[in-house]
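Hey,
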Amino acid sequence: MRLIYVLSLIVSLGLTACSTTTVYIVRHAEKVSEADTTNLTPAGYARAAALADQLGNASIDSIFTTPYRRTRQTAQPLATRLGLPLIDYPAKPTEAIVNRVTLIRGKQLLVVGHSNTILEIAKGLGAQPTMTRIESGDFDNLFRVDVKRGVFGKSISFSQTIYGQPTPP
């Protein structure tokens, strides 16, 4: 009887250690200017709405944005649709958001960043993007990092797609 109890305890602990965390990562949408306080352009607002449409059924649990208006405006339509607050994180160093996300288990997250941070965030989570940089006019990338934790360690999968209107070449 004791052996059955011990085995069931081990199985229970093993199952609770298993989880998949999915992190969606995007750059903020099109902005009016380079100023820190700039708003999105009409195309940027349309892209933000497209993000809400694309991720509206993805069971997002948390939305992280830098404290800049453009990142918050990019995430706001999805946050409103899902009834979620926007959670600020500092744009730099990227380790701040990577460390925070790494502690989350079994959830679906959205992280909205910047052209010079989203690849670093994906890499910090263990992904291996093929892109080496995000161009200044490139706003349509949607990265997905799945962190699968199991009894025998973790594995990372990475995929990249676009959302909204494709960025002109």
